[in-house]
Amino acid sequence: MLLGSRRPEDRTGLGLPVAGLNDTAAHAEVLVNATPGNVSLELLHSIGAPALAGTPLIDIGVGLSEDFTELSHPNSSLAEQIQAAFPQTPVVKTLCTMDSTAMTAPDGLDGPSTVFLSGDDAEAKRTTGLLLTDLGWPPSSHLDIGDITTARGQEHFALLFMGIAGGLGSHTFNIRVVPRASA
Questions:
Q1: Whole-angstrom Cα distance, residue 135 to residue 60?
Q2: What's the start-to-end Cα distance of the chain, in Å?
Q3: For the whole model, what pTM was predicted?
Q4: Could you list the pLDDT tens digit for every one of the 183 residues in the chain?
Q5: How far, CA to CA in Å, does 174 sit from each of 64, 94, 98, 116, 181?
Q6: Under a CB-based contact definition with an 8 Å cutoff, are residues 5 and 32 in contact?
């Protein structure tokens, strides 16, 4: 595993090697966009479409205003914009309905919860699902909600997330989709 950073020289002691973004993209089997949604497109353009082409990109970013009260992509999603800008890069949106603690330690939550997947490429979703399982998300928690346009729902949840966090007094939580009981 290789971590990419805009400032790799400032990212020491992480327990994994850190390289610049271009070097990381050149060696990646899967890329993860974990940058603030307001800068993601610019950053990905700096790497370039040829370097990203054919490599699944898992997008967890959400673009919010500085005061966290508005989305920077109110009529679409960051994931849709990335997919449109890089059509040769299969984009999968996931993990943006929770904080980083829940992302990487779902077993620390008080019960099972749901992790959503949105994207147009079935193989990229399958790969993402395997990686989610490796993170501790059992397949029963994965919910494929459809094509890349469904990423809007995931990203727009950020506004509700802020309200729930305020009500709980914590950002470490997730949601669970509870379907209707079988007849």
A1: 14
A2: 47
A3: 0.93
A4: 778 888 878 887 778 888 888 888 888 899 999 988 899 999 999 999 999 999 999 999 999 988 888 899 889 999 999 999 999 999 999 999 999 999 999 999 999 999 999 999 999 999 999 999 999 999 999 999 999 999 999 999 999 999 999 999 999 999 999 999 986
A5: 19, 13, 6, 11, 21
A6: no
